[in-house]
Amino acid sequence: MAFFCVFAESANLPRNMIENSMFEEEPDVVDLAKDTTAFPTFPALDPDEITYEPRSSRLLVRGLGENDMDEDEEDCESSARLLGMSFMNRSSSHRPSSSPYTRQSPSRSCSRPTARTMVACVLFLVIVASMTMVLYFLPGCTFTKDGCPKRNKTTPLELVYPLATNGELFPWTQLRLPQSVHPLSYELTLTPDLDNMTFAGIAVINMSVLHNTNRIVLHGLNLNISNATFKIGDGPASNVTVLQYKANQQIAVKFTEYLKVGQYCVLTLTYSANLSSTYDGFYSSSYTDKSGTKHILAATQFEPLSARKAFPCFDEPAFKATFLIKINRKQNYTTLSNMPQDEFERTSVNMSTYLVAFVVANFSPISKNVSGTLVSVYSVPEKKEHTEYALEAASKLLEFYNTFFDIDYPLKKLDLVAIPDFLAGAMENWGLITFRETTLLVGKDSSPLEKQVVASVVAHELAHQWFGNLVTMRWWNDLWLNEGFATYMQYLSLQEVFPELQAENLFLSVRFRVMDKDALISSHPVSTAVVTPEQVEEMFDSVSYEKGASILLMLNAYLPGEQQFRKGIIQYLKQFSGSNTETNNLWDSLTQVSTPHQNVSEMMSSWTSLKGFPLVSVSRKGDEVTLTQEHFLLTPANASHTSSLWEIPVTYVNDSCSVGPECRQNFLLKAKSGKLKTPVPESVKWLKLNYQNTGYYIVDYGDDGWTALINALSTNVSILTFEDRASLIHNMFALSRQGRVSFRRVLSLLNYTYKETETAPVTEALLQLNNIYRLLEKRQEFDLMSCMKTYILDHFGALMDNQTWGEEENLSKQELRSALLSMACSLEKENCTQSANDMFKQYVSNQTRRIPGDLQQVVFSVAAQSRTDWLILYDMYKQSTVDAEKRNMLLGLASTQDTQLLAKILNEGLKGDVIQTQELPLIINTVSRGFAGYLFAWDFVQVNWDRLIEKFLVGSFAIQSIIKSVTSPFSTQAHLDQVKAFFSSLQERGSQMRSVQEALETIRLNQLWMERNLSTLRELLTKIQSQPQKEEPGVSH
Ligand SMILES: [Zn+2]
């Protein structure tokens, strides 16, 4: 009976407990204790009590020996249960493997056992009891109350409570907290000492007991707890011992008597800690003002897992509570927190710990009242004049979101604070959003491109106040619910509120880039099970952000009518306001409001549960068009990777109507292949799928299809929208990278670009060509580089020459100009470098003459190639207080080809005095792109690895970016071996990161591409160089 009942009970586990298992095929939590009816004599245990851990085949017993049962009865009964479980788990390996979750299917025999079952159960218990006796007397380890000295590591049954720092057994083994006790409210009193870089704290945590339990387990890391008291209800407070288990970043209190369901209790902890010297937790930062005075400040960054470094807490997003935060400060400082400063109100909303924030600094604000909310922008005093644009953007966007979501922003105030040294772009803490200076501060005369950066980031963070803060993902596996949404809303709101900022080009290019990453075998599904801190950190990548946003765009474009998508998200926000959700909750809300009814859940679940994306191939026979889908992977994969099937909302246009939205036709491709419902007569010359690239898939048109499109484009560029032209270029390069089409075919498509003047297709083509050019450079294929240069200048030279160097108001033209001139100057096109040098000289002699924002990077990069000008630029960098300009100067400085200067700038970035360490990933990226620096940067990263992961944390976005930067220039076996050797030597210091797998795969792909294409490239480019004018399009495959 135990066997079946236990088996059935596991079906009732909360979905997330199963999903979050590290082992997808084998759910590792078997919830015995909930099933109290099966063992009526057994007191209701904490449902988190007993766990089977498949990785090590060890059984974990929790809380046994600590309840009020008779000891013998307890040992016997628990052993029986354990053996039942153990038997079950072993047998589960023999079960039919049709579903990984077979074990969950409820067994009906449990509810009303037949006589035969009863006999079987009794027999089973007898066997179990005998086995228990045998095991008990076996040498090695068995169940004892005192735990198990690890005498024999191969013993299958072993009690594995870890040891707390004081030597006692720590009563919990998992990384996720038990569910038996939930926090209701926190009262935090903090006293930071910025002179000594420490702080003292008192945390009063009110909790309610949801299941009987004899311990409270919560998070806390590097906190020196000096006193702890505990009380139940209004009872007296008594001192308790707090156990700490550092490996899991947890603390716990054990009780001799069980806490009972429904009780309220209060844990008060007095502690002290050091302010962090990294970018997470409660950390200190500093800046030097114009007069040379250094100012210290302190700020927080808790997402994802660092609130535990500032105060003891239940540091998982589903443990929401209210917060009352008091910060003692010296007179010359102001303090900011989620609620209005110095009034110390309790938060009016339940929130997750990662959204708590506080800042202690001498900042000054500008403010404005927006629909009952006081919006303020804070910066260091001397940059106050750069805050106006952010205030205006935040005010407009707040009003937009209040209306769009049909829910008013719930807090009385909203602060946006620019922190001088801050790693993330910004952080959406509820009511106190923190930013990098570069993402919040712009001068009055800044260009639209600089304003676009600020408006985008503000739009993203404000969207989080609803998506993330009001409704929060239950666990980090669904991080995309926060980040994909905020990213999508950022582009959507910008297009509505600031159409002049033309965010559509940016959104299109980020969609291309995330597909490049998602086409790797080492990619991951949007919703991915995560457990360890490193895995949680790694979720902060472009798949959660940009792929999340891309699939939302695809859904919005697919749902009929303007407002369906919006109605669905309003429904979702209202239904789950204040609570936590999983991906399905969102799809269900969208399904509910759809008219006519659409099964959104069915359509979208493939996009969140499968990694990668489909390639749709088109074939035409008579008037029949067949579409076939397959998983698009750059690395050839075995069959298990190619069985993925998506429900693809395909859109298409044809030669008779191809530009306006009315031309768009739809087809839902659910199966491996399908025929378009509407016949396409042979007189239709071509089809273009994925209208405006709103779908998250790529398309192969086959030989004839491509030829027809290429011919059509070379006759008339404007037969397709600019998004469609850019997507043809992107898809073609992707197919060539995979080896499906030849590079000859790529060049035949690019022939049309003589006539292209739109930003998106030009920038996409330049980016792809530049990638190849840079790889050739690193392989020292200098002859080929020279051919490639001729090719690029031949195709884009006229457009490059057309660009002006004055102020330009149109943002899209700025983007185009910036891309073209960067390319021209990096190829040392003479009129480009000359103009850039002239501009720099003028700027040095008269700094009131601003260099247009979009040209700064080009100008500074050209100047930095001369040692004298580099040093001038370096001095200017130290003086400048305009953040966007400063960043462009840094990009210039890092692009020098002088290795001594490269060493200087890398080391300054690591030291953090002149150049803030937050900029180091950017510096490493720029250095790695250059010929002089790429090996140097790789060396730098290896030598300084431990310092890097101390600053940026294993798995973090910064570390992901650093790994990608230094490894992506490689395309040889020797470098592949080096990279492999280095990362595998790191072990727990980073060898397990997904970005390492991505790096290795990318190098292999680069290597493969070179082997496959080098000779073709040589032949083609030489031919083109000897006859530079336009080739006939449509060269065969
Ligand atoms: Zn975000």
From TrEMBL:
TM ranges: 117-138
ERAP1-like C-terminal domain mapped to chain residues: 686-1004
Domain Aminopeptidase N-like N-terminal: 182-352
Site positions for Transition state stabilizer: 545
Active site, UniProt feature: 461
Main location: membrane
Location(s) in or outside the cell: Endomembrane system
Feature: compositional bias, Polar residues: 101-111
Co-factor binding details: Binds 1 zinc ion per subunit.
Gene Ontology cellular-component terms listed: cytoplasm; endomembrane system; extracellular space; plasma membrane
Similarity comment: family membership: Belongs to the peptidase M1 family.
Protein name stated in the entry: Leucyl/cystinyl aminopeptidase
Source organism phylogeny: Eukaryota, Metazoa, Chordata, Craniata, Vertebrata
